[in-house]
Amino acid sequence: MKPVNVGLLGLGTVGGGTVNVLQRNAHEITRRAGRGIRVSCAAARDLNRPRHCNTEGIRLSVDPYSVVDDPEVQIVVELIGGVELARELILRAIANGRHVVTANKALIALHGNELFAAARERGVMVAFEAAVAGGIPIIKAVREGLAGNRIEWLAGIINGTCNYVLTAMRDEGREFDEVLADAQRLGYAEADPAFDVDGIDAAHKLTILASIAFGIPLQFERLHVEGIRHIARTDVVYAEELGYRIKHLGFARTTTQGIELRVHPTLIPYRRLIANVDGVMNAILVKGDAVGPTLYYGAGAGAEPTASAVVADLVDVVRALTSDPENRVPHLAFQPDALADTPILPMEAVETAYYLRLQALDRPGVLADVTRILGERGISIEAMVQKEPVEGQDDVPVILLTQRVREGQMNDAIQHIERLDSVTAPVTRIRVEGLGR
Question: Which of 155, 269, 301, 347 is least enclosed, having the fewest CB within 10 Å?
Answer without folding.
Answer: 269
